[in-house]
Amino acid sequence: MSAETAEGFAGLVRVHQRLIREADGDTCGPFLYPPARRTARDWWPRFAQTGYESTDPAALDLGGTESFHDIDTARLDAAIQHVVDVEGPVHIRVLAERLLTAADVGRLGARIREHIAERLDAFEGGAEMIQHGDVVGRPEHHRAPPVRDRSELPDKLRELDYVPESERMQALLYAVLDNEGTEVDEAMRAGLEMLGFARLTDNAREQLRAPLDALLTRGMLRERDGCLWLGKEAFVR
To answer: How far is CA 91 from the centre of its chain?
Structure first.
């Protein structure tokens, strides 16, 4: 390959990367997720960063009862779906906190936790809502979550434990896209910063290892001499 050809090819790669990163927000469906690969548990890169949108408790309409268990099923189910629509994919602990605040309940007891779990189980198996471990969301939330900055959340909800693994994957991939050839720890620091966390602790490093391994296994990233590079699958559409 001549120097001129190589330079032209590199330019095309940069254009392709820019188009992927700055994709048309109105584009959806089969164009972004080919039907042959589109299942409820698929995950594909979505290069989008945004602030974290929190649910307005007043919008959940859970007040006016003496006990959380007095809330009728229809209202509770509607509130759960509203939280998922606003914050999905959302950790169950965050979901529960939104419900408790809206119902003016101070503590998540075992009975309330079980009651919420029962309502989530009632949704399981349907096409509208899917639960992956402790994370609940619509199918599209699991497929392509944005990277959300949680720096403005209260401390009790700003836990890396509550960030879906799929979103941690997005942040790590984004970090490598911004700085190919970066060391693993530097990519982790950059990904954490996007998610609203300031420090790469031992615990954070451990929690980011599984999503990083998932990206490596999928061919989205490749690791060489302790540094990370984009893999050939990173821009497949």
So the answer is: 10
